[in-house]
Design goal:
Helices cover 32% and strands 25% of the residues. It is of the alpha/beta class. It has two domains: 2-151 and 368-414, Medium-chain alcohol dehydrogenases, catalytic domain (Quinone Oxidoreductase, Chain A, domain 1, Alpha-Beta Complex), CATH 3.90.180; 164-338, NAD(P)-binding Rossmann-like Domain (Rossmann fold), CATH 3.40.50. The strands form three sheets. Strands 3, 5, 6, 7, 8, 9, 16, 17 and 18 form a nine-stranded mixed beta sheet that branches. The chain is globular, with a radius of gyration of 21 Å. The two termini are 35 Å apart.
Length: 415
């Protein structure tokens, strides 16, 4: 069968990493034992995937090590990477006795038409797992393929599937980050939360969860967003922040009563210049205290601008270099989830997630995010190139498929 796979040059290859190549290759219908042949129907694409691509070769993250690039003329796993995507598919062949043809599944797939995956012996009624012994054990959430028929969060409607692809990966990062903060009483009782890249889904989902915790516990904790001027109006319209300020003037806005209290800064942007300004602002003596800075995301990075040394201390396990910020903390969702699985039962975690997801599916439809569907290889390629040229608007959400073609680059539907 003919297969199509979306690939990008590795930064280490010396080529432009923002190029996109759709590689045509063959996929055999004869698959080894304990494997599945999956038809990838469609997948979400957002700033999250831009981050996966940018950090594809970073040795702490290794996003290009989940799916190998096909071998074709001018393309190999040494020169190109496959950026993982969250998507839905259908199993069209299985050689594993506990996984069946025809099953609808959701997982961390390759942007392709077809995908052959090995299946470990760890199969239950809710999921099966892709064995990736070359990756750290805490990557297990990425190796899970969810069986939709028994997934308590699954809704088969097309809109619900679209929302799942767009929000589920980002929302759980936000959900478990808020859970982590709550487990420490917000670092001993912080009263103000400041977030960069406030227009991103990761940030505003975290704001949504903090405000919900506030309402349940009667807390007066305030959530303040920082964003660019072009995203300011959208971020304010969300109604999820107590205040929203632009990057250019936030330090003159956070004065007087607004600046008082114990602060947590959640950095979703990954912008060194902005972070330095935030640190400098809170170094001024006064009635405010910056308790901690948390690195949660990298929405401002791109494959062509990533600094290979950025995660050197993570990669080696060494202590922070001299002069580094002593209150910087990194949040990596799989690591915290591994801790919580030792503290809570599977049923308790499942119930927590089900309740949170059900609320989100109702509440998010008032946030003014538009869905853009793109079908067909040439259209997907054009849509990616448009993102490279123009960037990602915060109100845009994408669902792509390498099947079929559309008359124009994407149809829009309001969520």
């Amino acid at each position: 069968m003919d297969n199509l796979v979306l690939c990008h040059p590795r930064v280490s290859s010396g080529q432009d990493p923002n190029q996109t190549i759709i590689v045509q290759c063959e996929v055999s219908q004869t698959i080894p034992s304990d494997h599945v042949l999956l038809k990838v129907d469609r997948f979400g694409f957002s700033a999250n995937n831009v981050t996966y691509q940018a950090l594809g070769e970073a040795s702490h993250f290794r996003y290009f090590d989940f799916h190998h690039a096909p071998e074709a003329e001018g393309v190999s796993s040494k020169t190109h990477g496959v950026t993982p995507v969250w998507g839905f598919g259908t199993i069209i062949k299985s050689t594993h006795p506990k996984v069946h043809t025809g099953e609808r599944v959701y997982g961390y797939f390759a942007p392709a038409r077809y995908l052959v995956l090995p299946v470990s012996q760890d199969v239950n009624k809710y999921a099966f797992f892709v064995p990736r012994s070359h990756l750290p054990p805490d990557r297990r959430p990425y190796n899970q393929v969810t069986r939709c028929a028994t997934d308590p969060l699954y809704d088969p409607s097309p809109t619900a599937e679209d929302l799942t692809m767009l929000y589920r990966p980002l929302f759980w990062t936000s959900f478990w980050c808020e859970d982590w903060l709550n487990s420490t009483d917000y670092k001993g009782g912080s009263t103000q939360i400041l977030m960069s890249s406030a227009s991103s889904k990761t940030a505003f989902c975290l704001a949504y969860l903090i405000r919900r915790r506030n309402s349940l516990q009667g807390s007066s904790r305030r959530v303040i967003g920082l964003t660019s001027m072009k995203n300011l109006a959208f971020t304010k319209r969300l109604g999820l922040y107590d205040d929203v300020f632009d990057y250019e003037s936030f330090d003159t806005s956070l004065v007087g009563n607004l600046a008082r209290g114990r602060w947590i800064y959640v950095d979703v942007a990954g912008n060194d210049g902005l972070n330095a300004r935030v640190r400098d602002h809170f170094r001024v003596p006064g009635e405010s205290e910056l308790v901690t800075r948390i690195a949660l995301g990298f929405t401002n990075v791109s494959p062509s601008t990533i600094n290979p040394g950025l995660f050197a201390s993570w990669d080696t396990g060494s202590e922070a270099p001299q002069g580094a910020d002593p209150i910087l903390e990194h949040f990596f969702m799989p690591e915290w989830l591994s801790v919580r699985k030792q503290q809570l039962s599977v049923s308790a975690i499942t119930q927590m997630q089900k309740e949170a997801w059900t609320r989100l599916m109702s509440d998010c439809q008032t946030w003014g995010v538009s869905l853009r569907r793109v079908c067909g290889p040439s259209q997907v390629k054009a849509a990616y190139e448009e993102i490279v040229r123009r960037g990602l608007a915060p109100e845009d959400a994408f669902v792509w498929s390498l099947w079929g073609e559309t008359a124009e680059i994407g149809s829009r539907a309001k969520l």
